[in-house]
Each structure stands twice: as structure tokens, then as C-alpha cells.
Amino acid sequence: xxxxxxxxxxxxxxxxxxxxxxxxxxxxxxxxxxxxxxxxxxxxxxxxxxxxxxxxxxxxxxxxxxxxxxxxxxxxxxxxxxxxxxxxxxxxxxxxxxxxxxxxxxxxxxxxxxxxxxxxxxxxxxxxxxxxxxxxxxxxxxxxxxxxxxxxxxxxxxxxxxxxxxxxxxxxxxxxxxxxxxxxxxxxxxxxxxxxxxxxxxxxxxxxxxxxxxxxxxxxxxxxxxxxxxxxxxxxxxxxxxxxxxxxxxxxxxxxxxxxxxxxxxxxxxxxxxxxxxxxxxxxxxxxxxxxxxxxxxxxxxxxxxxxxxxxxxxxxxxxxxxxxxxxxxxxxxxxxxxxxxxxxxxxxxxxxxxxxxxxxxxxxxxxxxxxxxxxxxxxxxxxxxxxxxxxxxxxxxxxxxxxxxxxxxxxxxxxxxxxxxxxxxxxxxxxxxxxxxxxxxxxxxxxxxxxxxxxxxxxxxxxxxxxxxxxxxxxxxxxxxxxxxxxxxxxxxxxxxxxxxxxxxxxxxxxxxxxxxxxxxxxxxxxxxxxxxxxxxxxxxxxxxxxxxxxxxxxxxxxxxxxxxxxxxxxxxxxxxxxxxxxxxxxxxxxxxxxxxxxxxxxxxxxxxxxxxxxxxxxxxxxxxxxxxxxxxxxxxxxxxxxxxxxxxxxxxxxxxxxxxxxxxxxxxxxxxxxxxxxxxxxxxxxxxxxxxxxxxxxxxxxxxxxxxxxxxxxxxxxxxxxxxxxxxxxxxxxxxxxxxxxxxxxxxxxxxxxxxxxxxxxxxxxxxxxxxxxxxxxxxxxxxxxxxxxxxxxxxxxxxxxxxxxxxxxxxxxxxxxxxxxxxxxxxxxxxxxxxxxxxxxxxxxxxxxxxxxxxxxxxxxxxxxxxxxxxxxxxxxxxxxxxxx
Length: 888
What we know:
By secondary structure, the protein is α/β, with parallel strands linked by helices.
């Protein structure tokens, strides 16, 4: 941390004698501080600050210098509330003295930000770090040591949030500046070495970390001495590196040396002393010396609780470490208590920090601790206590699909806001995202030619998104307001209804402390009769489900033959626990996103699940909290927009009609993205889509419902992307998802799953043939869909192939068209899981809309009845089971 600079010239101008004593106090206090003796330094500065106020008044730079240093010493000693009070006072006074474009004000921002960072208050720290960095860049230049400190501190924040690439760039910049400005024997340069090594340690790049740790330790030993806290830090960090590599004989003496120094200089009530206790305990645990490890872990936890508070990440780490220790000792009751406390802290971290991050940063932040959520499943399975399944379910209600929920909530709140600034920012953000989408679709050559820096453009979008969040108090409170429990879900269930959370997890071996290659599916089941905790069902054959089982299921669907195995593998373990339930809300995960459970057949009765129970798919069972009671819908107030039968060639359709909505001619050896081209290089037309659109339009108009129809050349990308105020959007065309990322040296666009799924519209054939390019090329990707404004859209029907597919990310759902349309604002989606037959699909859709628009049924009733009617003509699930409805 940067230290405030005291200017003694003012002492001798008016208060010679008292100034001399103040000067001596300052020198003595700073001497103790530099030696790491913070208690004595605090004692001296607590005497000096009132004297400085008496001599100069509070609105003087000498007073703020003393107060700022005292605040810094409070922080070093872990007295955060005292430090914050002084830092805020100093910042306010310095604003009056120097203004907000001065390096002293930048120092105040930095010091306060470091305090918040040490407390895990990331959303409060970042704007202060950025403000300080910008001021110093303007006033001191980007080669100044103060600017290097700004870079270093901001990097520490990004490291804490899991933004490793951003942290590394800043650490390297700080290190280079300090090497030139201060030299390679300076403590600040040693700090840069240490921090960069810490980043490499996190990334498990140990060969890069060790020489940097050794260099920092050597510099600190010479420049600061071997009794300084910074030297102790070097001993601790190097020991942690050796410990992780199993070099226990090298690690233990370093831990003990660090512990002794910290006892002497900081005392036994300091977080840094607790930190080394925690690490030494871990060393003993790894050596199975459990009786030596437990008291050290308990001591560390107690200190962290007192000094940092029980919501701090370090306190959470203490809970986690104790939990793992007790788990090894098979003391499940104690382990359960520690895991539960640890998990609740991480839930609180999401609620505290999530709102003010961009989506990319949210993902990085969540990735930093989602392993902790995954580990506890293995513990709960081994523990076999009902208490574990209760808090596990509670965690799921916060963590599952949390990124998706965050994006949806932000859009909804912005739309409802009356603040013009928020709405303006939202428009700017969407425009930047649209620009970024165009850039993503360019080749590397195009980007270089136009001198486009994609990372810089991504950062612009991130900054706008964060500004949008910060501007709105409502957005900031999204997560703080909702801490739902499993019993809240239970209250929403009617008799004969069930809620099931399915979760894909890796099995964790606690003895080796590693995730194994075993895959488990854990279902947590809540019924109106559930007593103490949700029922837990474990499917230990996760690998089988994801390989041979899913292959068998899809082959049976495609071949239109009876499926005798899938029911027993995917459904029976759950069915045995839900009794005679009539309606089941399921939040799927992993392989369960790729099957339509309703198409599974019970071998004895030969009945499909659809004929016995109603399956209702949701992103998370917390969605039940927001579901409203079904009302009779007056569709006459609706606006229908129907897109279909696009003019793929940009002229009169000439190609052969396709039987399904994903026709592919394998004789053409072109990119997989061009699989829609037939043998003549043209996209197969879909006559059924024209019939489908005309039929739906006729039914709607007969009921006086407003309809806009887009056929042929009118079914183009630009028109679709710009529609607004639509209640039902129906799109009938070719759909696609490419599961395999192609290697393309000229482009990185297909690394993004949202660019590998989409719909074909007018002119798509020309794009696939390479004759046109750009974002209006007739290929509407999921990435582009996310930038659409579908707020208030009740239903999107994707009458095309594979529109429900995408890249599955455990706990976050499917990254594809489904997610994109929902993020754009659609409340409900009808989508397909496999290639669909053109004729059967148009009949299915015709029935669906007749049930809704003519018979006045709600969406779900209309959809289920349409499936049932189609099933009479086409008994095989291939025809009627491709489509699923997800949403309210």
C-alpha cells in the first residue's frame, strides 16, 4: 500500500517547538511501521493525530497525512472499521484541499480501495482503484511508481475475482515500471515479484512462480530484514508452493519461520498470523498428522472471525479446511456444520458482489468457488444425513443458472425503470454488443486490416454493463433480496406436484483431495409431503448415461424403434421417489438437457411418460416463486409475427424440397457450417414452413388477432432482429447447432457456442457459399439474438431443427438459441431437440395454434394436446417428441 507523505516544511513556519515533537513522533512511528511493529506504531500515531489537529486544524494536509498513516496502520493490524472511518475522513478533507485531479486524492482512493479489497468488498473497491489509476496516469504519467502501485492494486482485485489475464497484464506492467523507476533491490519491486508469483501459483504454473518467490524473499531479507512481515510473507508463500508440490520437508521450516515472525511483529490476533496457522495446519493434514492440524485450523478460524468477520472469504476458507479435516476423520456431523457455514458465505458473496459485475466477470467470479459447491455433493452422498440435502438445495436456488438469472433480471429492471440515464446506458450497451458481435464474426485478417482490437471492444462492453448495474439501485439489490430456501419452493407446490433439481457433478475423493473421472447425477426432490429435507437420489452411472445410454436413446428415436432401456436408466430411479405425482417441475442439468423425458417408455405398461405425468421444464426450481396463477388469455390483444419459407438464395427458390428441417447432402465436402447445401450448392427449401405460416395466419385472423406475416424475401435477418412489441414470435426454417469447434487459423469466432447455433433466413445460401458476409448475411446466430429486444414477448416458437441444442455448461444450462431468446426477453420457448420432419412439424404447429387461438387454451395445455393429437397419426416419438416447451 502506498504511504501518505508528510511535508515538514509547514511545521517550522509557525509552531517550531510542537512541530519538532510531532516530527519526532512521525519518524518514530514510521520506524516502527517499517519494521512491522504495528502496535507500537499505532500507539505513537494515536498520540500524534490529536496534536496535529490541535496545531493545524482538520482541514490541513499535515492532519490528513497523520490520519492517513494511522488508518493504514489500523488496516495492517486488521482494525478495519477504525481504518475505514479515518480513510473516509482523509479522502473528504483532501478533496477540499487538493481537488479530485491530484495525486494525493488518488492516494486516498487507493488506500480506501485496498481496505475494501482486504474485506472482500470487491464492488466497492474497483471504482476507487480505477479512479486512482486514471488520475495518476494524467498527473504523474504511466512510468511513475505511484501508477505502478495503481496497476498492482487493481491486479490484486482482478486476481481475487478470477480475472487472471487482466491481473497478469497489470502485474507485469507494475513490475516493469518499478524495475526501471526504483531498481531491482527495492521492496516494491519485491512486492511485484511476489504478487506475480502468486498469480502463477493460482494457475498452477509452479516453475514460473518459484524463481519469483525466491527473488522476492532475497530482496526483502536484505532491504527489510528477516523480522519484517513482508519477509514472513515470502517465507509463507514459498512454503505454500513447496507444500502443494508435496515437498513437506522444505515447506515446514519456512512456515514455522513465518509463524514466529508474525507472532513477534503482529501478535496472535492478526489475520496474517491466522493465515500461516491455516497453512501449517494444511501441511500437517497432508501428512496425516491430524492432531497437530486441528488446533491450528481452529485457531485460524477464531482469529479470522474476530478480525475479518464471519462473511469474509478467509473465514470461509477456514470453515472449508476444517470440513475437509473432519470429513477425513469421518466426523460427519462436524464436517456438515463447517460445509454448511462455508457454503452460506459463498452464497452471501454472490449476493454482495454479483450485481456490479459484467456477465463475463460474473462467470469468472463464480468459477473461483463453484468447485466448493460441487465437492459437497460427494460429502452429502457419503454423509447420508438429511441435513446436507437441505442446505444443498438452498445453495442450488442461488447458484444454479445464476448468470442467466442475472442477465434476465437486469434487462427486466432496465425496461421498467423511469431513469433516462439507465435507459440511455442500456441502449449504448446493446449497440456495443452488436458491434462486438460483428467483430467476432470477422476473420483475423479482416480485424487486422481494419485495425480492430477485439479485447478492447470486449472491455468497452464490460465497462458499459458494469456502469449500467452501478446506476441502478434495483439491479444492485437483485440478489440481496432473494435468499430462498427449499421450503419456499414447497409452498408453491400443489397436491400431486413435485419439484426436482437435477445436478451433474464429478465425484470427489477426499483422501486424495482430487476430483475423479467418475460422473454422478444427483437429484433433489421436494414434494408437498417432504418433512425435514429434500429427498436425494444418486445416479452413480453418469458416464454411462453420457455415452452409451444417450447414444442408444438417440438411435432409437432416429430409427423409430422401441426404446426398452432409457426409462430404467434416466427415469426409474426418480420415479420410485415421486409416487403418484401428476405434475413435475424439473430443472435439468448435463445429459438431461439432451433428452425429452416424455418420450421414454415404461417397459411393462408400454406407456410413455407423457401419458402418465406432466413434465414442466424450468431453468431452476426457483422459477416457481415467480410463476403466476394461470389466467384465461385474451389472444385478441396479442401481436403475432410469423417468419417462414425464407428466400435462401435471394431469388426464386429452385432447389429440391427437403423432408426435414435440417437437410444435408454428404456428397458435398464443405464446412459443416454448409451442411444445408444440397448437391447443387443450394439450400433445400421447406414447403411445409410456408403451409405452416399460412395456416397459423388464417386461424389468427379468423379470431380477429393481429398478425404480421414474413414469407420469402421478407423473412430476412434485418427485419427479424428489429421487431418489437410482439407477443408471439414464430420462426419456421432451418436451424442448426455445431457441437464441434472447427479449427480455423483465420478466425476464432466458432469458439463461442452462441456463434455455433442459429437459424437460416433470406440470403443464407449466398452466405454459406461465401458470396456475402457480415451480420446481415441471412444466418441469425444466437449471439445476435441476445441483442434483440423481446421484452414482453410471451412466446417464441422455434419451428426448426435442433433449436434446443447448444453447449451444455453444468449448472448454467444450454448456451444456444434457447438461452439467447430468453435473455432477449422471451418468457417461454418452444424448441426442438433433434431434426424434425417437415410435414409432421407443420401439422404439430397447426394443432398447437388451433388449440391456443381457436379453443382459447393456455400455452402448455395447447402444446400437450397438440402432441397427443399428432401422436395418433405419428405414434413414434421421432415425430411428436422433438419439441419441448420451457418457461412459465
